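User: I'm writing a tutorial on reading structure tokens. Could you give me a worked example: one chain, its sequence, then its tokens, then a sentence or two explaining what the tokens reveal?
Assistant: Sure. Here is the example chain.
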Amino acid sequence: MKNKKRCAALLLMAAMCLQVFCGGVMTAFAEYSDMEGHWSAETVEKWSAAGIIQGENGVFRPEDNITRAELAVLLDRLLCYAPSEKKSFPDVSSSAWYADAVAKLHAAGVMNGDENGAMRPESYVSREEAAVLMYRALEVTAAAGELRFADASSVSDWAMEAVGSLAVNQYIQGYADEFRPAAYMTRAEIAALIDRMVAVYAAQPQTYSGDYNGIVIVAADGVVLDNMSAKGLIVSPRVGSGTVVLSNVKIDGNVTKMNQSTNIKSSDSVVSGEKPGGSNGVVSRPVTSGGGGGGGSSSRETMYRVMFKTNGGTFGSSNTLFVSVEKGGVLGSRVPEKPKRDNFVFTGWYLDEACTQKWDAGFAVVQKDMVVYAGWAEELYYTVTFESNGGSVVASQRIFNGEKAQIAVTERAGYQFDGWYSNADFTGERYSFTQPVTADITLYAKWIAESGQEVNILLANDVTGGSMIASPSAAIAGETITLTFVPDIGKRLSGKPRIQYGDMQIPERDIAAASDGTYTFVVPQDAQGDIIVTPYFVTVYDVAVQSGEHGAAAADKTQAEEGEIVTIAIVPEEGFETESVSVTGDVVLNRLDTATYTFVMPAENVTVHVTFSEIAVVPSSLRLPLADNSFTQIGSSHVNVAKYTETSTELIFGKDRPSVFLKIDLSQVPEGMRISAASIQLTYKKRNEWNKGIVLLEDNSWTGTALTYNNSKDMFTAGTELVSPQEYGTGDSEDNKTCVFDSAKIPGLAAAMNRALTGDKLVSLAIHYDNNQGKTKNDATNFYSKDYSVEEARPVVVLELTDEPAEKYDVTVQQGENGTVTVDKMKAEAGERITLTVAPNEGYEAEKVSVTGGVTVTKVNDTTYTFPMPEENVTVAVTFKKTAEPEPETYTVSKQATENGSFDVDKTTAQKSETVTITVAPNEGYEAEEVSVTGGVAVTKVNDTVYTFVMPEEDVTVSVTFTKTIEETEKTVTLSADRYGYAVNTGSGGDDRGWITMITKQNAQDFVSFTQNSDIMRMGLLGFDLSSIAAAGGSIQEAKLLLTPRTLKNANTVFVHYFDKNDWGPVTNSGEIFTKYATDGIFTIPEKFAVIDELVKDQAKELDITEFCKTHSGEKISFLFTADTSEAANTELQWYSPLESVAENFRPKLVVTYTTGQPAVEYDVAVQQGDNGTITADKTKAEADALVTLTTVPNEGYEVGEVIVTGGVTVTKVNDTTYTFIMPAENVAVIVRYDKMNLPVETETLEIPLADNSFTQIGASHVNVAKYTVTSTELIFGKDRPSIFLKLDLSQVPEGKRIVSASVKLTYKKRNEWNKGIVLLEDNSWTGTALTYNNSKDMFTAGTELVSPQEYGTGDSEDNKTCVLDSAKIPGLINAMNQALDGDKQVSLAVHYDNNQGKTQNDATNFWSKDCAEETNRPVIVLEIADK
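And here are its predicted structure tokens:
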């Protein structure tokens, strides 16, 4: 047992000490779904297969920008940096997925923080940042050359060297001629950059050759570089203490050895690169060492064979291999893999079978066919360790017993090597490499300084808790020092040491931590005197673990400092579990799971105690009493209920006691167990044979004392009968004293109990009898209750338990014809209830539902059936039969009463799809307007009196509306021109306009005269209004234009043009029209409409314009007349005008024939929804004079502020939500404004003057304008001063306030009563000094009248001195002011008078202006304001 426990503990400790090497296990290449067809697909596949770049969830996201964190992890995978203590960056969590990689790259000097000390891991990497990081990481040799990108000046100074070097080496490419240094690098671009820079990634132990314009990374032991040239070489830590061979290799750059224990063997190889800042494992001079010669390039026609014999070993399944080589050549990479031999080590190839003449297989020149033999030595070797004492690191050598160690070369700048010594104090003679190695040995390098001042590496005097070994202990500038710290017992080194010389301190980033616990730094160039090292040794406390028998426990630390987290892992033996875990002292344990605990280390030694206990054996059977207060009899009526009481000793079951209720409490069944079988045992006091059934009740909350006939009946009815009395029988009996209800005979009982184990752990049952057995009242059976004095006679439940899962049986469905059946379970335990759902085809119904094995099927409804699952597989089958044809259902056809006619239907009831005929009988003068059937049923019109529809599958109501018959009548109307004029255009061949002559009723009769000569062209205009015909519902049938010539001289042709400019009034100056519609002073005559010729003096000429008038029905139309300019000079043509002085029969006319009798015109009612509520109209179209009802629904907290109908229609308020108006003969829009309800609000009063230069009177004509001046003290309002303009400046209203009410107070100097109206002006840019009659008239016309003079009246007056214009009487004023608060904060108003009041010029009113000397007489605005 103790051995078993120790084994478990060792396994546990081994598992806890495992570490992932170099950033984790490489992920094999996976095809990425988003790389197909992408330009970088091949590159991404290559480096993904190498495990360097990775995607996520099957995608690579090539066009996503790469972050600093992602690039740090990628470079760590590529170069496998040594582990390093994590630097504390404020934005890098120690648990972040990239934290290790960031720390490694920072320690290596590749990636630094920004000026604020932040790493910005989630920031994207710019192109110049990527260049710097790759330049540092891959040790690129600095290269000089001109940066030829067009945007080279945009490259940051700190990035210039890196970008220039990568560009010279053709590692980076731009966009056309730009580098775009600030643009972000994508994931695909980074993959491409790595592929260009890393020419060879040697991750397999094999030979690599070739010439490359890139860097070679060696990432495996046993790599041979043969006949190769490259721009740089990096030997990855993945090589470990293995060997890399260089043969005829030229590195035109830096060589970096990242692990000092790696052995590089080179021959005929040269490195020309220089790396600034010290060697750091970089070979910066030609690399030469002993080794075989070159291969030569002799003729390949003569070939020799070299036979390799394994001499007791094997090449897999063979013991001989042949290799061919050209005469004078070398094998190089063709040397076979080392053979293998159990318990022996391969020592090389030999020329003789005795293995005395060693042959250099890779480099020896082959001049003939030859046989070589494998040499072997027993696996006995010793280690020669080299302590270089500040020199370059020399890898240890494994030397076989009796062999000689290889001469080791080490270098130390500024020192001369003085040999290897076998003792650290260099006493005795130098070590000779000719002597055999027969034991492990350490050799120490001795150095003699060539020049420079040595400094001593000393431990600070005040350091306690440990000691230090510095190697070397004295050094010159530029040398690397290795520090080894030896803590005292109970101590441990914490963090990096502090290293000082003089007043200077070596930065922590320049102190490198090695995986073996040592630290290195480089002696600074300015170091003098002693370098003082101060390590920090902290106290650690012991963690002891004591575990009892039957298990093992281990801590992840044997020592820890105060505050560290200690993790305890526990492994019980089979059949046991953890019983208790405790830690000495006042320590709080945190349980992560059953096998893992943690605690925070206190400032003392602790012992963890763990005990184990045997897992309890679960019983296979269990006897349970019934639940308390849970066994009672139920009578067949209220009077027969014998309630359960504490003193009851028996219960009666039989004729008048049809049911016994009992409740089973399963809470004692252990967790994880289920019930495989159960029996309920009841003991007889008096026995009679009754067939007994079992019902499973749904409700478990009942108690025997509370049960009544009524509620028990409901529970019984809602329950599920597991087995009927006829199926179960009388029940098993033991020696005629016990009734046993066995689950084997009660399908579903065990399943119901197992379901209860996952719920309330209660099962309620009702035992009931077969009332068809003919028993009498005296044939009852008496059972002892659970309170009977003899315990053996009390009711008991016997359970068989198991931890095996319940067996499930298959339910197979056999589909029949004419329908389908589905089941809710395809597998079920015995006793589970299965539900079947049948779906007959149309016209069919289920005839029979059966389950194999004679299982009883219960019908729930026409489509649902259930059955209990037996202990066997079953098949469900359903047969369907045709449904009996039902009697066709009929539906009612009702009629809705109507007016102005009657109608009848040929059926009052009808079946679905029957045709129903409607016959309408309108009263005289009426016709059917609409025939409709409820439910949206389509109605077909057969003729004017007969309609039909198809009966739907529901009752319907038919309704008919009648309307007056429309009689079409034909009318002819003669229209006189309502607009006419002519213009005479004279000039001297240029574009000058001549005089404009306006026709009036006082001048010439002739309508227009046309004259053609060198100077004169005369034109005429004629206009008619067709809108009265359309308004009367007329439809134009024919239209003729009649024109009568008055004078003809050398002309009888006139051109008629349709003039589409109709906004000119009757009897106007047509010259103004021509001027108005001229472009650049030139009037363009429209296209010809018609030609009138063959004219006869004083005879009317008809021009048929029917189609033209139909097209423009309801519009004003205008015609332009011009003379035919091709006729002779001195042509003159005069027409009779439409003036009253002209005889009626000569005037121009438009004779229109039209038909009337069209239906009354309906006009649109458009509802415009506002904010804070809705409004609806009961009609969307209405005839003129129809009543339209509006219903408003304000939002909560709002009320109707104003309801407006366009066109000045009066709106009548019926109540708070209902309004009505009479429809005018035009389309209207309904607008509602909702205001916040007048809840009590705090208001404040604000008085402000009018805006500067903003109060003036406006005269009725040019001569009457009295302009505002600074010296004005009063303004006149009245007969010849119809308007006063004023501007309100609201800029003093504070932000966040709204205007509740407003009044404009004007003080009288002279008062007369005038009804005053208010117009809201659109433009606020006017000033009183610049206002004239003309521009004020345009402003007035463009404004909106808020209230008319008749509506407002004279205005409120205070003591007959003040006119108060109150917003309460001016709808829309407050709204306009509040809107202005969100805009230019100005409101302009015009006050105008009622010119129908009959006032005279002397009845004017004089107001004091804003320049009145008395301030109290000046106009003022009084505002009530409140919070918005």
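What the tokens reveal: The mean pLDDT is 80. Residues 107 and 505 are 18 Å apart (CA to CA).
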